[in-house]
Amino acid sequence: MGVFETLKKYKWMVPLIEKADRITKSTLLKNFRLKKKNFYPEGEYKADIDNLIKCMLCPNMCRFDCGILQASQSETMSPGYKARIGYYLSIGKIDPTKEENKDFIDLMYKCTNEESCKVWCPFDFSVVSLLETVRDDLNDKGLMPDYCKQQIDKLNKTNTIEDYNIYETYKEKGIDNIETDGNDEVYYYIGCEMMKFPEVVKANIEILKKAGIKFSTNLKKRVCCGGPAFNIRDFETGKKFAGKNKELIKETGAKIVVSDCPGCVLTLTDRYNKAGIDIEVKVVHIVEYINHLISNDKLKFEKEIPEEFKKITIHDPCLISRNLNDTTSIREILNKISGLKIVEPIYNKEYVHCCGWSGTVHWADKEIAIREAYNRVKELKETGANVFLTACPLCELGLGYGIEENEKDKYKILDISELLMKLI
Amino acid sequence: MDFKNFELIYKENRHEIKDKQAIESKLKEIIGENNVSTKDIDILAYTKDTTLLAFNWVIEGKIAGLPDFITWPETVDQISEILKLANKEKIPVIPFAEGSGVVGGAIPIHGGIIVDMKKFNKILDINDKNLTVTAQTGINGMNLERYLNAKGYTAGHIPQSLYISSLGGWIAHRAAGQFSTKYGKIEDIVLGMEIILPQGEIINFKTIPRASTGPQLDKLFIGAEGTLGIVTKATLKIWPYPEKRALISYAFPTIENSFEAISQILRVQIYPGVIRIYDQFETERHFPDVEQAKDKVMVIFVCEGNSKLVDLEESITREKCENNLGVECGEHPVEHWFETRFRVTETSMLPTYKIVFDTLEVASLWENAPVIYHSVLESMDKVKGNLIITAHVSHFYPNGVGIYFSFGGVPPKEKSDLEFYQECWDTTIKAVLDAGGSIAHHHGIGINRSHWMEDEWGKSMKVMRDIKNLLDPNNILNPGKIYVNTWKRGEN
Ligand SMILES: Cc1cc2nc3c(=O)[nH]c(=O)nc-3n(C[C@H](O)[C@H](O)[C@H](O)COP(=O)(O)OP(=O)(O)OC[C@H]3O[C@@H](n4cnc5c(N)ncnc54)[C@H](O)[C@@H]3O)c2cc1C
After folding, report:
1. How far A35 CA sits from the closest chain B CA (Å)?
2. CA neighbor of B449 nearest in space, from B475, B482, B416
């Protein structure tokens, strides 16, 4: 809220305050003046105290839609409580350096970044945006949790978020590596997590070829976008990856970067920008790009939809629907497929419930992340469709954890590109 | 972590647990390792409810109560076993749902076992023929309502705390929603319940539209605030989602004119879903840009349901408003209410200026309502340090109203924030009782009002205490609420 709005909002109080006795008025003035001295930390800090306070003093109006709270069903995971702990860690009420307080530090990482809270927030922020600033101070104090350090180690050792360089597995997975000649129209930027789903990558390559796009994949040179480092708030590592990616993208000469991972899109754009790095070309998620190709008649559906895929439900990746604000591309594409029946889940589009596999929680508390995945799968099952269509490798992973072992044959998680492959 | 770093507000008569570890092991035997915690991080999370003063405590690093164990049972039998253990060991048990209660109901003032009801969150059945929904009571209100909406229904119970409260919490506090003038309060909506009594016995009240089967024992548990039993399942009335809404607003010269218009509307059995009167201060606060409402009393109405009925309700509502000097203000004020009704921002701001504030609601017959309004305002003006006293009225009956008063001020030097807060509460409630009103409309008693119960109930209070003793002879279920004076009147 801007100063003007705040003044307007509280103007009605002025005559009431004017009526008060001198002592009350002067106490009130003193309290206004001393707000920072009374409640803010001393010295240097990065924590967003203003908004941590707002969040911890809110009746928690977003709690019903916090996936982690719904998965744990514990007050400890409620958004307002996380802000409260962030505040106490920042002002030293809870000493983060004490081993016995490790649980409180861990709580700062138990979030999926899904930002469903932001939809309901009267102040229009997400809780993770506050927790991240607490993580900044923890990092400065050398208190980064081990599970985060391990991710940074992996990034440094393998250039990806895996124990090995997952891009090097392209051959054995049968993925075409298309080297750039420096004059590409599109750089198909494969997310490292998507390398776990080679059928999706192959489908995307096929689709781009079919549409006659000149593109490259450059897998031999590929590195992670650095997203995990930004999540952990290790900006030094994040920027290192940003630098490498900027160079690589430049090398391709591509006018547009198209990624199959919304996490990569978010990192290459928003997170790089916030870190002061501009890669200077447009970056979009592949659903948006494919929708554009179809609208421009570059892609046509030529085949009948196979029987087993005639009824599907959509799981909107929260990174696409809430972070990239795109809930239409996926539906516009699907609406053009004749014979396809879409059964929407109750919670969809910008109100989608997360699959559990985004953010830092799956490192900090894998069990809760799995329970969140389980909750989401339950909602998808309720639609009566056996095919869960999505467009994000993290969702594929998360939903995969959410399906019980004995139901794995019954339900299929499908990337939209895999479906399109069957039609072109 | 050392809880000594946090000042404890309710520290008298804490229950001493001799062998904590043994109790913890027994609890784990009952509900499993992962459903019990004594970790600091969990204990701290259950030290408060949403009593508004608790926000001042949060920023000042104080805690209201300190529980010993947190439990998350998943079955009725598990709750029953926890209660049996608690009786044997004489340990308090505090049902806790979403923690949005505003009178201290879920604060573990003597320590003990928190029974968090959140895992009781399943919707079990929607029956279109009977127009009912059956759900476990830990379910969050918004998650219940939006599920119903998606299926084409509404329960019609939309408290401002819809996002932050549970079905069990509504039943416990005899809650009332913003659309209650049409759909009724929670006691009108609940048709059946499953309850676990303090000693662990499980009872059921069958789902029935109405019966003549002796006294209505089930009603005893609606409003019992977790002191007579833990409600685990309930069946509620539901309605087809309204096909039409009419948004109406009028500004009146005085609050008396608005009361008169509304009583005339209800007299002819027109029940708008929402009726809301803003006194002059609140009108200035919420509608500074509505010219016609300057220095007046704004009233908004929402009529909803079948479109033919809505048209009729709208025309009669307008006629009665105009007959009582109401000036039409259009749809905008109602739209503004729809947009902002869940956007609570004050709690996030005021404690940072050490302002102590709250909103409390009382009930009255029509004939006493104007007197109550004016006398509370007058009395509160005399409270040293109080800056703001305003009112809105949002629950209506053919026979009377539920009025909310909001206060806010800075405690004078000689008073702690709790002492000042208590003075504001007690001043309001005394003025209400003196003018013939009732001390609570729908937030309940909890800690904040328990010392006024003798005045409210007179000799019937003994009967209430006898019932409590009969059902809970060891006084283990949510002790320190309703039946005893946890706040002492006139002292603190
Ligand atoms: C911003 C705001 C707006 C509000 N607006 C309204 C409103 O419009 N209408 C209204 O009526 N109230 C309102 N309230 C008050 C509050 O939301 C209600 O009192 C609500 O009913 C409490 O539900 P809960 O689930 O949060 O319960 P909790 O706060 O967790 O518990 C409240 C009491 O119920 C008991 N309890 C909880 N679950 C059970 C159970 N299953 N069985 C037995 N006892 C149980 C607890 O022991 C405690 O005594 C508002 C509160 C806030 C903060």
Report:
1. 6
2. B482
Beta strands in B79-147 (DSSP E): 93-96, 113-116, 123-127, 132-136
Are A408 and A334 within 8 A, CB to CB?
no
Please tell me the residue having the least CA distance from ligand 1 atom 27: B169
Following CA atoms B459, B172, B61, B388 in sequence, which dihedral angle do they give, to the nearest 10 degrees?
-70
Using CA atoms, how far apart are residues B257 and B326, in angstroms rounded to an integer? Answer: 8
Instruction: Please count the structural domains in chain B.
Output: 4
Q: In chain B, which residues have pLDDT < 70?
A: 489-492
Could you report the predicted ipTM of this complex, rounded to two decimals?
Answer: 0.97
CA distance B404 to A371: 41
Smallest Cα distance from A360 to chain B, Å: 19
pLDDT in tens, B295-338: 999 999 999 999 999 999 999 999 999 999 999 999 999 999 99
CA A48 from centroid of its chain's CA atoms: 20
Amino acid B473: pLDDT: 98
In this prediction, residue A2 carries a pLDDT of: 60
Does the residue B164 lie in any domain?
yes
Which of B142, B161, B387 shows the shortest C-beta gap to A24? B387
Residue B106 beta carbon below 6 angstroms from any ligand 1 atom: yes
Statement to judge: residues B127 and B235 lie in one domain: yes
pLDDT by 10-residue block (mean), chain A, 424 residues? 67 84 92 96 97 98 98 98 98 96 98 96 97 98 98 97 96 96 97 98 98 97 97 97 97 97 98 95 98 96 95 98 97 97 97 96 97 98 98 98 96 98 94
Q: Is B428 close to ligand 1, i.e. is its CB under 6 Å away?
A: no
Write down the pTM of the prediction.
0.97
CATH number of the domain residue B111 falls in: 3.30.43.10
Confirm whether B463 is domain-assigned.
no
Residues B388 and B439 in one domain: yes
Which atom of ligand 1 has the smallest separation from the CA of B169? 23
Domain membership of residue B416 as a residue range: 345-448
The CATH number assigned to the domain holding B375 equals 3.30.300.330
Helix B417-434 and helix B369-381, axial crossing angle in degrees, nearest 10: 150
CATH of the domain at B290: 3.30.70.3450
- A59/B164 CB distance under 8 A: yes
Quote the ligand 1 centre to B161 CA distance (angstroms): 8
Domain annotation for chain A: domains and CATH numbers: 3-143 (1.10.1060), 147-295 (3.40.50), 307-420 (3.40.50.1860)
| CA separation for the pair B201, B191 (Å, rounded) | 21
Q: Is residue B465 part of a domain?
A: no
pLDDT at B492: 40
Q: What is the pLDDT of residue B13?
A: 86
